[in-house]
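ugh ok fine here u go
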Amino acid sequence: MRLALASQGFTTDEIAKKIEELVGKPLEKINVAIINEAYVGLDESCDKRWLIKELANIEKYIGGTIDFVNFRAYDKEEIKKHLQRADLIYIVGGRQHILEKLFRETDTIDILKQMANEKVIMGTSAGSIVLGRKITSTDFWKERYPKDWDLAETHEELNFANFNIIPHYMREDHKKWTKSFFERVLKENPFPVYAIKDTQMVVYHDGELEFVGGNPEVFGKKKI
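structure:
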């Protein structure tokens, strides 16, 4: 299994080179399939400029075919065909719970599990979070996601990796979520949660971890 869990995608040459290494192809020959439904759950007042920038960075680094896989428009067999043609499956972030709901309602979690053993799956923000293990702390959900705090009871993640990430760590618009906050709400978390900046990525390759762009802050249990 080859997972690349990033905060904001292809933000550095170092991240791009690591993807090239994981895929085993030069960047100019990598074909990518993009899953991009999670942004639809964001508030209508939210500026979506970040999405344009993130997609532009894919075009900047990736030289092969770029495809969009609409899980609501295609049936399961067509989704599988699109994913199989790709070397890299790229899951864009957005609203916290949209992706798990999308995969569950379209009955495609089994396809993603198969792809995780055949392809490189790269997630960004919520696209990375959904590939990890669910954080169950009620305080975490109530204080960090007050509109969605009930997800502590109802939401699930895919559990492809036995840890999770906090994206956009200490970014200007996330600075209220301090190190002391995460230490408090995740102190009893039974698995590691890696807080990464937009220039960082956590690689999970057949059970081995690698940190790209520097070591992240670690909350909860320190080792998987």
